[in-house]
Specification:
Structural class: alpha+beta
CATH superfamily: Phosphorylase Kinase, domain 1
CATH topology: Phosphorylase Kinase, domain 1
Largest sheet: 5 strands, antiparallel
CATH architecture: 2-Layer Sandwich
CATH class: Alpha Beta
Shape: globular
Distance between the termini: 24 Å
Number of strands: 8
Strand content: 15-25%
Number of helices: 4
Helix content: 10-25%
Order of helices and strands: EEEHHEEEHEEH
Radius of gyration: 16 Å
Strand order of the largest sheet: 1-2-3-5-4
Length: about 210
């Protein structure tokens, strides 16, 4: 591993936060290490709820669940490549910058990418359940989706038992089509530091 940068809550939804580290790897380039916060109410609930689907002896169920979602979707090209699953964290290749109206990509290109994502979701009967601008990245002009902790696919059901509906954005996956609009954007905390870190180590990710 190379130089490491830690950002608390960079990949942060409104219901919980993760510890996220960026590092450089000789094989995978920039990698993202997402460590799940076990002291958070939503993560605790997800670990309890998902234990009916995943063995707790293999690590946190929430991490296993996100790993399974990424493995399912990886052949379609719009999620980060998984590097490693650890008992308390998930390691992925860097997948780009959060979507914004200033991104150097044509709106029609973005919309076509998003339609492809939604088409695959429908084909697989897959629901993300937490799509927001911070969870949609652009890398080399391609859309990449992240943060699948609340996703539903296969036999896994989460939304019907979720104790706090504010933890999710259930039924709103189609909103991804609006995220290039300035009205949909809010600053993503800490990302300026990520850009500086990547520049310092000589890595220039595509938009």
């Amino acid at each position: 591993m190379g130089r490491r940068m830690r950002l608390t809550g960079f990949l942060k939804a409104e219901h919980y936060e993760s510890d996220v580290c960026f590092d450089s790897d000789p094989v995978h380039g920039i990698i993202v290490i997402k460590k799940y916060k076990t002291d958070n109410e939503c993560v605790r609930w997800l670990n309890r709820h998902l234990s009916q689907y995943y063995e707790t002896s293999s690590g946190q169920p929430v991490g296993q669940h996100e790993f399974a979602a990424l493995q399912l979707l990886e052949p379609y090209g719009f999620v980060p490549k998984v590097v490693d699953l650890q008992p308390d964290s998930l390691v992925m290749e860097f997948a780009g910058n959060p979507v914004s109206p200033e991104a150097p990509v044509k709106i029609e290109t973005y919309l076509n990418e998003c339609r492809h994502v939604l088409k695959i979701f429908a084909k697989l009967k897959f629901s993300h359940n937490d799509l927001r601008p911070a969870n949609v990245l652009l890398h080399g002009g391609k859309v990449k989706i992240i943060d699948f902790t609340l996703s539903e696919f296969g036999d896994v059901q989460i939304m019907k038992d979720l104790p706090n509906p504010n933890w999710a954005r259930a039924g709103q996956d189609d909103d991804i089509l609006t995220f290039m609009s300035p009205r949909s954007q809010r600053p993503t905390a800490g990302f300026g530091r990520v850009r500086k870190f990547l520049k310092k180590i000589g890595f220039a990710p595509g938009a």
